[in-house]
Design goal:
Layout: H1 2-26
């Protein structure tokens, strides 16, 4: 069970890292705001 949780957390972290890098590359001067 713990191995499954670790795999899920690792996958979520990788996906979040990809989204953050894509957002940073598209607008390096304007960080994405949570309200917009």
């Amino acid at each position: 069970m713990l191995d499954y949780v670790i795999e899920v957390v690792a996958t979520v972290l990788v996906i979040a890292a990809l989204i953050i890098s894509c957002a940073a590359l598209s607008s390096p001067r304007r960080p994405p705001g949570p309200r917009r």
